[in-house]
Amino acid sequence: MASTKRKKRAAARSKAGGESSPRSSNKINPLLRAEVEAFAALHQVTPREREVLMWMAAGRGSAEELAEILGRSINTIQNHIKGLLRGIGTNSKSGALALFIEYLLTGRAKKKR
């Protein structure tokens, strides 16, 4: 059973960009990373929530996939997602990405409601 889990994690890491460590975000595009960092600096989000947003913006949005990539439990990732959504003032992952895209297009982040 444990080797099956290891194989699944290795496959997820490979799919995510071939990382050797599930906790690193080395395969995130540097330009995307910089934009997420700038966007997150305007909101109250933790470093882990910022990393979750980076992976969401890179197309890795499911809690299961993020749990595999980041080496955390699904419940922990769901808590990070909830914190991220609270921090940027939206109630859905698609809303979070919409706010991020709006920021990319306009250079301005909407304030929390």
Description:
The protein has six helices and no strands. With 113 residues, it is mainly alpha-helical. It is globular. The chain has a single domain, classed as Arc Repressor Mutant, subunit A (Orthogonal Bundle), CATH 1.10.10.
Notable features of this structure?
single chain; 113 residues; Arc Repressor Mutant, subunit A; 6 helices; 65% helix
The structure class reads: mainly alpha
User: What is the fold named in CATH at topology level?
Assistant: Arc Repressor Mutant, subunit A
- Output mean pLDDT: 81
Strand content: under 5%
- Largest sheet properties: none
The coarse silhouette is: globular
Quick take:
With 113 residues, the chain is an all-alpha fold.
Write the layout of secondary structure elements.
Elements: H1 2-15, H2 30-41, H3 47-57, H4 63-70, H5 74-88, H6 93-106
Helix pairs in contact: 2-3, 3-5, 4-5, 5-6
